């Protein structure tokens, strides 16, 4: 050790002598070279360290989101409003969950489907727990489903479970038996599971009035820590902490805060002044202010809502003529509607299925390449070939009758503007369209249920592509069915029933190909667009927000347990071993 010290001392003495003998200019050059060497060394070490390490998410931080509305039922059986469904999404867990792309097991470890598609058997994961630490078993699953099936509970989900037989095989295994095969059943099993030890003592009549609907306990990624209320007892903010026992892994964000506002104006102000980090559902007319600023990111995946013109041939016989429907289809300016009404935050649609589902068919290349003027000229040529001629006022007539119809729609700003653009475009063609605007509260009761319309501008919500059965099968033409286009075709009925029960995706696509050919020959409606889901977030370091498509607005939070704020760098070998 003494020899090493002596050598170092000798080296330093020699260097000191050399530097002392250098001229002033040489000393400056020597110092610069030394500094350069030190910087290069540190740079090399940093580069080496960077190449040998990788960035990983780490736990910590919070996330705050604005929501318009007030929660009332944080209960998967009763939730209908946006705030309720958002909280149900993160407080509760189901056998399965939608990860933004597909359905994956959440509480379930695995599931098996019988060859005939009627029996689904789920095996739960080990050591599942509710937020209060009590075990979650197959008996809790059965309890929840049986509550949904109880007519006295009045759950909006009852129709999904009405004819499902429930059998508990043991604490970890539950079996569901369907009366008929249903390819969309996995979506049904995303139902949040209630703890029987908390809800079991309440009668169905008491469910709606229990405080547990706000102080909810589930098994989801986050649990309610605190509910802040105003003087009237209405929740204004709910603070949630992460559930360390969550079945899909411990969430990264430690805290999630949901702040509730009565209007979009107030919520937008909170987003702009940095009181919250995100807000969904902002009207497209307000988006420009956010799009221009780098401090905001606009997520806009397609929403599973198909908007179309539906026809009632019983009220207006012109819709029995396929050529008339085809001409109207050609003349409606879908692209212009999307640009003006939705600021391009929507997708053109020419067929029934939304873009991200099995059975989607894009508009033809010829349609996409044609201009609005081309479409109008093509529409007029179709009608003139069928004997429709314009009179002195530019109105198309045939056999003394004008080409005219009434168009019913709810009093919604976007639908009203869409209706006005359709009216204007068809007027240019020579078609008289009279708009009938109804208040949303009366629309279902006075228009849809009695089928009291000639044409209808409305949207259908697809939760699964198999919903096509309800929308287009002839059995749903009358109230309370959902076939509001009153479509009927025997061949289509056969295919729709096959699609409903076919679980193999490839085979289902083949069935949809056959169905598309029938729809091309006998159009069930004029499909217009699929709007985007608008989700504005501050460009803060919240990572891994991946929204591929949205079925329900609450789906944006389905993978919140994978979101993170902070990162760290670790040696790659440790991540490989992990």
Architecture overview:
- The relative contact order is 0.14.
- With 578 residues, the chain is of the alpha+beta class.
- It has three domains: 145 residues, 3-Layer(aba) Sandwich (D-Maltodextrin-Binding Protein, domain 2); 122 residues, Dipeptide-binding Protein, Domain 1 (Dipeptide-binding Protein, domain 1, Alpha-Beta Complex); 227 residues, Dipeptide-binding Protein, Domain 3 (Dipeptide-binding Protein, domain 3), CATH 3.10.105.10.
- Strand 16 and strand 17 form a beta hairpin.
- The strands form six sheets. The chain has a seven-stranded mixed sheet with strand order 9-10-11-2-12-23-13, sandwiched between helices.
Please give the CATH architecture of the largest domain.
Roll
Q: How many domains, in number, for the residues?
A: 3
Let me know the largest β-sheet: 7 strands, mixed
Shape: globular
Which short descriptors sum up this protein?
578 residues; seven-stranded mixed beta sheet; six-stranded mixed beta sheet; 3 domains; alpha+beta; D-Maltodextrin-Binding Protein, domain 2
SSE layout:
Blueprint: H1 2-21, H2 24-52, E1 53-58, E2 62-68, H3 82-91, E3 96-98, E4 103-105, E5 108-113, E6 119-124, H4 138-149, H5 158-161, E7 165-170, E8 173-177, H6 185-188, H7 196-199, H8 204-207, E9 222-229, E10 235-242, E11 255-261, H9 264-272, E12 278-280, H10 288-291, E13 296-299, E14 305-311, H11 322-331, H12 334-342, E15 346-348, H13 365-369, H14 372-385, E16 389-390, E17 396-398, E18 401-402, E19 404-410, H15 413-429, E20 432-438, H16 440-448, E21 455-461, H17 468-472, H18 490-501, H19 505-521, E22 526-531, E23 535-538, E24 566-571, H20 572-577
Parallel strand pairs: 2-11, 2-12, 19-20, 19-21
Antiparallel strand pairs: 1-24, 3-4, 5-6, 6-8, 7-8, 9-10, 10-11, 12-23, 13-23, 14-21, 14-22, 15-22, 16-17, 17-18
């Amino acid at each position: 050790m003494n020899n090493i010290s002596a050598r170092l001392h000798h080296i330093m003495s020699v260097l000191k002598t050399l530097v002392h003998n250098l001229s002033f200019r040489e000393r400056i050059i020597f110092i610069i070279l030394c500094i350069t060497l030190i910087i290069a060394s540190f740079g090399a070490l940093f580069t080496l360290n960077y190449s040998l390490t990788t960035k990983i998410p780490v736990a910590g931080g919070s996330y705050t989101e604005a929501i318009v509305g007030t929660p009332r039922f944080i209960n998967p059986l009763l939730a209908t409003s946006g705030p309720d469904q958002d909280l149900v999404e993160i407080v509760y867990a189901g056998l399965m969950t939608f990860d933004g792309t597909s359905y994956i097991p959440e509480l379930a470890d695995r599931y098996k489907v019988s060859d005939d598609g009627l029996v689904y058997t789920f095996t739960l994961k080990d050591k599942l727990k509710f937020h209060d630490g009590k075990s979650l078993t197959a008996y809790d699953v059965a309890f929840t489903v049986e509550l949904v099936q109880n007519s006295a509970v009045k759950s909006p989900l009852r129709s999904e479970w009405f004819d499902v037989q429930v059998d508990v095989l043991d604490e970890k295994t539950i079996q569901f038996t369907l009366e008929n095969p249903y390819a969309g059943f996995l979506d049904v099993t995303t139902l949040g599971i209630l703890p029987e030890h908390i809800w079991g003592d309440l009668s169905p009549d008491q469910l709606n009035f229990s405080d547990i609907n706000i102080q909810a306990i589930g098994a989801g990624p986050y649990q309610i820590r605190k509910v802040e209320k105003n003087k009237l007892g209405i929740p204004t903010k709910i603070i949630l902490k992460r559930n360390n026992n969550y079945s899909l892994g411990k969430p990264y964000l430690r805290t999630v805060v949901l702040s509730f506002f009565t209007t979009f104006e107030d919520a937008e102000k909170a987003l702009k002044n940095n009181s919250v980090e995100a807000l969904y559902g902002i009207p497209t007319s307000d988006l420009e202010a956010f799009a221009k600023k780098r401090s905001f990111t606009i997520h806009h995946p397609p929403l599973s809502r198909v908007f179309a013109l539906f026809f009632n041939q019983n009220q207006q016989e012109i819709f029995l003529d396929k050529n008339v429907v085809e001409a109207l289809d050609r003349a409606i300016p879908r692209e212009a509607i999307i640009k003006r009404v939705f600021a391009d935050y929507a997708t053109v649609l020419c067929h029934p299925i939304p873009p991200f589902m099995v059975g989607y068919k894009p508009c033809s290349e010829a349609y996409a390449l044609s201009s609005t003027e081309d479409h109008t000229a093509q529409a007029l040529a179709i009608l003139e070939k069928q004997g429709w001629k314009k009179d002195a006022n530019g109105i198309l007539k045939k056999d003394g009758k004008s080409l005219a119809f009434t168009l019913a729609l709810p009093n919604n700003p976007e639908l009203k503007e869409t209706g006005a653009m359709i009216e204007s475009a068809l007027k240019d063609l020579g078609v008289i369209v009279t708009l009938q605007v109804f208040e949303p509260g009366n629309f279902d009761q006075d228009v849809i249920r009695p089928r009291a319309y000639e044409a209808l501008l409305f949207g259908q919500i697809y939760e699964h592509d198999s919903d096509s059965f309800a929308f287009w099968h002839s059995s749903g033409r009358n109230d309370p069915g959902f076939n509001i286009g009153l479509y009927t075709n025997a061949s289509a009925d056969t295919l729709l029933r096959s699609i409903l029960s076919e679980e193999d995706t490839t085979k289902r696509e083949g069935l949809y190909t056959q169905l598309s050919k029938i729809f091309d020959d006998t159009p069930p409606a004029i499909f217009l667009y699929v709007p985007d889901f608008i989700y504005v977030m501050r460009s803060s370091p919240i990572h891994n927000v991946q929204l591929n498509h949205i079925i329900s607005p609450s789906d944006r939070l389905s993978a919140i347990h994978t979101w993170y704020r902070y990162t760290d760098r670790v040696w790659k070998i440790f991540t490989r071993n992990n």
